[in-house]
Structures are given as structure tokens and as C-alpha cells.
């Protein structure tokens, strides 16, 4: 096995200068790839090696494509956030090449007629099944893509029995580098600052959409997501990590079917790694403390631990793939070097050999997931867990959130229907055209994950690896009415084929633009940015005069927002286009904490400028109306670690300059928003307020009930409404300040998620205004996900800068 690895490395070195000929579509592609400013390393990695650069990948693939008739190379039509190409390589034996449409069709039949599909498998045990391998979704985890390239070379060119057997049984689909921007810039996140391995329910990023398209296109039997770097979880004898996970497990999985195979397949990967331990170089053992040559295994969370590495949230790539019936695994290599590449390569080979040995029964159990959905038979779930359907009513004035949800569900292989006539359920009459999600369908688990209320799992586990609640209806702003499993809708319906998203402008003006959604606020901002004068009422409605009619008619065509004629109320205040500056987090602790807010502001239609802490210290805030801090508190520190240092301030003089410039901005009438725990703490350190900041645990998060006061800051929301917290924050010493919103004063104010010792926040202020400084203890723009809460920020921008 060592010879194989070394040969792969050597050949890729030789191929580095291969011209971009097979895949190049135009000279522009060559220019793009040869002029990239590519980083050589990340300071967050403890080891460094000469990994394959993004600009070399296309040439390597081209050369293999010329050499082998087993390989199909495609550029996705979808580009990365920064416009880079994403490559999909499919490897099969030549007999299957050219029949991919046939195999994809068979995978679709598994969903449509699972019982027949199981019978087909019994009669055709030689059927090839797809396995998907995802390379380096985190850009700094370089070994994943390097292992993918070696695996592609092996399966494209080798003729040993193991290689031929695996190709007889499988079609291998490689997403070569899942995050081109991150590989180029040596960042964990993509060019928009989003961690793609947290985006699989939101699907806000093009790279995520690309991966979802691949998964729904192929419905792979096994999904392997290649990461790094985990060294110490299993102690010195068990470097690296291979899932399955610790509890809690999401209750919408058919987890018994996954568990039937997952541990055995993980141990097969482990055995493959350990079986080749003599071949590892131990290049960095002195510094990494990873002794590959003496390893006894690897850390498998479900086997080796009780909590701490869960698969509850469907935001991770393999967990998302599990809802499509895949046996999904995260593989975390121990080190950032060629030994880490070999560990990953060996793990994948172990998974593929296991899949070959157990293919027939594994794929039949995958189909069983779909059969349970179609037959509404979930034997290992609590009675009543799955409703029989969801009703998604349309808002008469603003259908954007509901239509976004319907399109999202359809993109995820979930059937949505619309009523052919009016119908009544639980005393409520719904009109013809109302959307319905029937739950007797193959991917009912994913549908329920996206539409259910969630649950409070605080008592189920000591802590969570990431978020514990993501309720799309609440956080996107549409209704999902649950039809219990005991009830059945008596209505004829058809599958939704086309979404009519055309809005309407009614009357001759003036026009009332409702404060109801991201899209409605964006419409108003587009008018403002184009020079129109608008007026804002106390309820947040924005009014335009009749001169805006033509432009509004163009804008609403794709928005599903109805704009009606309505007189401008007395007391409405004139508003102009607002300039917003946001403090940029370049990547402290490998994350860009401000990115969700930046994307939210752009979607809301604001003019947004990013300034990093050094720029604010040297230049000030500029001519902006509003300055927003939504990031870690150590953005204003000048005592950061070596890896974090470039993203914060550099010395005490810069800190004093930053502080003085922010104070000057506020004194001259600028408005300052501190969003979240880190910004709140930093703002107190800067001396901007005497409010006292209190926070929950750093991994506490979820959906909360709020009590809003009557103010323009909470316009468009109900007095009793919801919010989202991530490291929950609240405030005290607020007697001389305006409390705009509080956590509900009730023991049940926490609705879903994980938050220990939350009682201390009950009834406490969560939005407080102190002069021109506004504190928001929620995360209203979290990861570009919480659309329903974005308007808390747009309200603040318009209200603060009147």
C-alpha cells in the first residue's frame, strides 16, 4: 500500500505542469486558474506540507482523462462564491460508462417504488451502487482533496483485483474540492465567509447547492466527507476520527437502519488504516505527537464515548445525506501532511471494500428508508411523531417566505402539492392553491426535519457540538400547520410544478411597501438606492409616491409581494438610502463571525461596507449612517494568538484610535448596533454604555419566546414573538435605558434547542437602547438562515438613522 501512495504522490508532481486542455471551455478559464493568489498554508494548522494547489487540479484531471476510459470529468454549472470551478469526477468500469442516466433512473425508482426496487435488487445483485466522496469542504483541511486525487488516479488507472472488484460493484462520484475558495485562500470558510459544513438546512451558498444537487441526483448508498484534523479524542493510540456519532441522534432519521451497518463499516475503515500502519512516514510525530506506526485504531465516537460528537443537527454534509438514505460519515484525518493524506486514503478504501462485501443488503436497507416513508410506517419512532401532512398557507400580501420554502423542499426531493379547491381543517378554511406537504413520501424524514417545531434537548445530553434547533417555519417566516397522524386531509391536490412568484402593484399610488419580509424591505431599499424618497410609518411600512409605480412594477415581478395604494399617514418620517459599515472578522478562530449579518444586510438591499479593526482605527467609520459590530470580542484585542493576530488590532495605540473613532462617530450622530454576546462585551470594554452584559454557555443555542414592547424597532412583529440565540445574551442595569424587548417572563420561554441554566434569563431584557447605541442579545442574522428576524436589523437601521 505504501508503494501505491508514493506512486500517486510522484505522478501528481509530474502532472503539475500538464496544460489545461480537456476541461478548459475558454481561454478565460486558463487565465483564471493561472493568476490565482494561492496561500501556501494556514497558521491554524499545526503541520504544513506542499499540498496540491487548486490551480493544479484541472491539469491533473485532464491528464487522467486522457489516460483512462473509466473516468468522466465535469465542471459544475454552479461556480463557487468567488466564481471558481467545481469539478465532479465519476469513475466506473467502462461497461457502466455511458449508462449513468440509467443508473440514476434506477435510483429514482427506489424512491418512487421502493418495494419493486427491493425485488429488483434481489434479481440483479450485480447492480452498481453509487458512493459519493466529498473532498475538503473546509478549505484548510487540505488532505481531503489530496486523498481524492490519489483515489481517482488509482481507480482510473490500476488493474489490481481490489480495484476491479470495487469498480464492478460501484460508481464512484468524487466532489474533488468542495470549497475552492477556501483551498485558494487557506480558509475554513468559502468566499462569502460561510462554513459550508453548517449550511445543509439553509443551503444559502452555491457550493452547498452544488452538493445537494449531486446527492439528489445520485442518492448515494455511502457518503464519505473528508476532513481534518483530530488528534487527541481517542488518546495517542487512536488518532483521527470516524463516525458514527454519540447521542443525541435526530429523531427524524430511520436510525436503526443506519446503525445496522454504520459501526461495522467504520471499523472496516479503522482496520484498513491500522493494517497499513507500517507504511506511514511519521513525518511530523515530534511536533504533532501522532505516532502512526504504533496506532491501534482510531476514535469512533459512538463506540468510544458517550457524548460530545453528535449527529443531531442536519446542517453537516453526511448528516444531511443520511436523509437521502445514505450511510454518511465524517472522516477526520489526524495531521495536515502526507501521512494525513494516507490515513484518509486508507479509510476510504476500507469503506469501499466493506460496501463491496455487503452491497446487496446495504442498498436494500437504504431502500427500506424510502419504503417506510411511502408506506407511512416508522416502526422505531414514537407514535404520532410524524404528522400525516403539513399545510403551508399563503399570505395574501407577501408570499415570498412560503414560496421560498416550497422551492426549497422541492430542491430537496420533497413532494409539495397544492389544493385543487377550498378545504377545511380543524375549523379553518384554506383556499384553492394552498400548499400541502404529504408525509407518506420517501423522504419524509427530511421533510419533517425541515418543517417540525423542534424540541428542547437540554436534559438529553451535557452539551451539543453545534446548533440544536433550526425550525424553518419560525425562522424563515411562514406557517406550517401540522395535520396529526390521526387526521387525514379530505382534499384533492396536484403536485406543484410551477411557482407563480409574480407580485402586483395595485392602484395609482402612493404605495405602501409592507414591512413583512426580506424581499419587501429589499424592494424599498432598491427604490431608495435609485433616488426615490420614501416615508416610514410607525409600523415599519415604507411609503412611496406615485412616481415609483413603473419601477415597482418591474421589481415585484419576481418577488410575490403585493404593493397596494395607501395614503401616507401623518407622522411618517422621511427616509433616505442608508450606508452601513460592518466590522469585518477576517477569520478569528477559523470563522468569519460577521458574515451572516453581512449577507443579511445585502439581501435586505442595504449599501454595505466592510472595515476590519485596523481600518477603523486608521480611517474611522467614514460617512456611514450605522456601524454594526457582530463578531467576537477579541476583534478589538491586540493580544491575540499568532493565527488570530492578523484579524484583530495590532497594538495599544490602534486600540485607542479605534475607540476614539467609534466615539467620534457616535458623537456626530452615527448609530451603533452591537449584535450578540461578543459585540456586547466588546462594546462595554469600549466604554459605550453602562449596561451590564450577561451570557449563557458558549454552546447554548435555540429558539426563544420574546415579549416585544411597542416601538419602531420591533415593528412588523407581534408583542409575543420568537427569536434565535447562539450564546444567549441578556442585559441588566438598564433603568435609565429603553428596553425594547425581553425574554418572555415564563418558565417555558425556551422553545427548542439546548440551553442549561436558562432560568436566569427569564423575563430579562434582550434588546436595549442606550442613546445611539443599540444592544441586541439575539443572533437575528445567524448564518444567513434566520430570515424572519432580519427585519430587527433593518428596523434598527431605519429607526436609528431618521
UniProtKB/TrEMBL annotation:
Required cofactor(s): Zn(2+)
List the InterPro entries hit by this protein, alphabetically.
Answer: Peptidase_M14
Q: What sequence ranges are listed for the domain Peptidase M14?
A: 50-355
Q: What keywords would UniProt list here?
A: Carboxypeptidase, Hydrolase, Metalloprotease, Protease, Signal, Zinc
Read off the Pfam families from this record. Peptidase_M14 (PF00246)
Please list the residues that make up the active site.
332
Please give one Gene Ontology molecular function term for this protein: carboxypeptidase activity
**What does the similarity note say?**
Belongs to the peptidase M14 family.
Write the protein's name: M14 family zinc carboxypeptidase
Show the taxonomic lineage.
Bacteria, Bacillati, Bacillota, Bacilli, Bacillales
Amino acid at each position: 500500500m505504501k508503494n501505491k501512495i508514493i506512486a500517486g504522490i510522484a505522478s501528481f508532481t509530474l502532472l503539475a505542469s500538464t496544460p489545461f486542455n480537456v476541461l478548459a471551455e475558454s481561454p478565460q478559464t486558463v487565465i483564471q486558474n493561472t493568476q490565482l493568489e494561492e496561500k501556501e498554508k494556514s497558521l491554524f494548522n499545526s503541520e504544513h506540507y506542499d499540498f496540491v494547489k487548486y490551480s493544479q487540479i484541472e491539469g491533473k484531471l485532464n491528464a487522467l482523462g486522457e489516460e483512462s476510459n473509466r473516468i468522466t470529468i465535469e465542471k459544475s454549472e454552479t461556480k463557487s462564491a468567488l466564481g471558481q470551478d467545481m469539478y465532479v469526477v465519476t469513475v466506473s468500469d467502462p461497461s457502466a460508462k455511458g449508462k449513468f442516466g440509467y443508473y440514476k433512473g434506477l435510483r429514482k425508482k427506489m424512491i418512487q417504488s421502493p418495494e419493486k426496487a427491493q425485488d429488483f435488487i434481489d434479481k440483479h445483485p450485480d447492480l452498481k451502487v453509487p458512493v459519493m466522496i466529498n473532498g475538503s469542504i473546509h478549505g484548510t483541511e487540505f488532505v481531503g482533496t489530496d486523498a481524492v486525487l490519489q483515489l481517482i488516479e488509482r481507480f482510473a488507472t490500476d488493474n489490481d483485483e481490489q480495484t476491479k472488484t470495487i469498480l464492478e460493484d460501484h460508481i464512484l462520484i468524487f466532489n474533488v474540492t468542495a470549497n475552492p475558495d477556501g483551498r485558494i485562500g487557506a480558509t475554513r470558510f468559502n468566499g462569502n465567509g460561510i462554513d459550508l459544513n453548517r449550511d445543509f438546512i439553509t443551503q444559502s451558498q452555491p457550493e452547498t447547492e452544488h452538493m445537494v444537487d449531486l446527492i439528489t441526483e445520485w442518492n448515494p448508498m455511502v457518503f464519505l466527507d473528508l476532513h481534518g484534523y483530530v488528534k487527541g479524542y481517542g488518546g495517542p493510540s487512536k488518532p483521527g476520527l470516524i463516525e458514527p456519532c454519540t447521542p443525541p441522534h435526530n429523531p427524524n432519521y430511520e436510525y436503526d437502519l443506519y446503525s445496522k451497518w454504520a459501526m461495522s463499516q467504520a471499523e472496516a475503515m479503522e482496520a484498513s488504516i491500522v493494517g497499513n500502519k507500517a507504511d506511514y512516514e511519521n513525518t511530523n510525530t515530534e511536533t504533532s505527537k501522532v505516532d502512526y506506526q504504533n496506532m491501534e485504531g482510531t476514535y469512533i465516537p459512538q463506540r468510544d464515548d458517550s457524548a460530545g460528537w453528535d449527529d443531531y443537527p442536519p446542517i453537516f454534509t453526511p448528516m444531511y445525506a443520511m436523509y437521502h438514505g445514505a450511510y454518511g460519515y465524517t472522516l477526520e484525518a489526524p495531521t495536515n501532511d502526507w501521512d494525513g493524506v494516507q490515513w484518509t486514503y486508507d479509510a476510504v478504501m476500507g469503506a469501499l471494500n466493506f460496501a463491496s462485501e455487503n452491497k446487496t443488503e446495504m442498498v436494500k436497507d437504504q431502500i427500506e428508508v424510502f419504503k417506510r416513508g411511502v408506506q407511512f410506517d416508522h416502526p422505531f419512532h414514537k407514535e404520532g411523531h410524524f404528522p400525516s401532512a403539513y399545510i403551508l398557507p399563503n399570505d395574501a400580501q407577501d408570499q415570498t417566505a412560503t414560496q421560498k420554502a416550497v422551492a426549497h423542499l422541492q430542491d430537496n426531493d420533497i413532494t409539495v402539492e397544492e389544493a385543487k379547491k377550498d378545504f377545511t381543517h380543524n375549523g379553518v378554511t384554506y383556499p384553492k392553491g394552498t400548499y400541502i406537504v404529504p408525509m407518506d413520501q420517501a423522504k419524509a424524514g427530511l421533510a419533517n426535519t425541515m418543517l417540525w417545531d423542534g424540541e428542547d434537548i437540554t436534559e438529553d445530553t451535557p452539551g451539543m457540538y453545534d446548533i440544536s434547533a433550526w425550525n424553518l417555519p419560525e425562522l424563515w417566516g411562514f406557517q406550517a400547520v401540522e395535520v396529526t397522524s390521526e387526521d387525514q386531509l379530505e382534499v384533492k391536490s396536484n403536485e406543484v410544478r410551477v411557482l407563480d412568484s409574480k407580485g402586483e402593484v395595485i392602484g395609482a399610488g402612493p404605495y405602501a411597501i409592507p414591512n413583512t419580509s426580506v424581499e419587501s424591505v429589499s424592494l424599498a431599499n432598491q427604490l431608495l438606492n435609485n433616488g426615490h424618497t420614501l416615508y416610514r410609518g410607525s409600523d415599519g411600512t415604507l411609503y412611496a409616491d406615485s412616481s415609483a409605480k413603473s419601477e415597482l412594477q418591474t421589481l415585484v415581478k419576481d418577488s410575490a409581494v403585493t404593493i397596494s395604494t395607501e395614503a401616507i399617514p401623518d407622522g411618517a418620517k422621511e427616509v433616505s438610502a442608508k450606508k452601513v459599515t460592518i466590522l469585518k472578522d477576517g477569520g478569528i478562530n477559523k470563522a468569519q463571525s460577521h458574515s451572516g449579518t453581512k449577507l443579511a444586510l445585502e439581501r435586505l438591499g442595504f449599501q454595505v461596507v466592510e472595515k476590519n479593526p485596523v481600518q477603523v482605527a486608521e480611517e474611522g467609520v467614514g460617512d456611514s449612517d450605522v456601524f454594526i459590530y457582530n463578531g467576537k470580542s477579541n476583534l478589538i484585542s491586540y493580544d491575540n494568538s499568532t493565527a488570530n493576530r492578523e484579524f484583530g488590532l495590532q497594538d495599544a495605540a490602534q486600540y485607542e484610535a479605534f475607540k476614539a473613532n467609534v466615539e467620534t462617530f457616535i458623537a456626530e450622530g452615527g448609530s451603533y448596533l452591537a449584535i450578540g454576546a461578543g459585540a456586547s462585551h466588546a462594546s462595554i470594554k469600549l466604554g459605550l454604555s453602562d449596561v451590564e452584559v450577561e451570557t449563557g454557555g458558549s454552546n447554548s443555542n435555540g429558539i426563544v419566546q420574546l415579549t416585544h414592547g411597542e416601538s419602531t424597532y420591533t415593528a412588523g412583529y407581534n408583542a409575543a414573538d420568537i427569536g434565535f440565540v447562539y450564546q444567549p445574551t441578556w442585559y441588566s442595569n438598564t433603568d435609565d435605558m429603553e428596553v425594547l424587548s425581553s425574554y418572555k417572563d415564563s418558565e417555558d420561554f425556551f422553545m427548542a434547542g439546548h440551553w442549561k441554566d436558562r432560568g436566569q434569563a427569564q423575563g430579562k431584557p434582550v434588546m436595549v437602547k442606550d442613546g445611539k447605541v443599540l444592544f441586541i442579545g439575539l443572533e437575528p442574522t445567524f448564518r444567513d438562515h434566520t430570515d424572519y428576524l432580519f427585519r430587527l436589523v433593518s428596523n434598527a437601521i431605519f429607526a436609528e438613522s431618521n
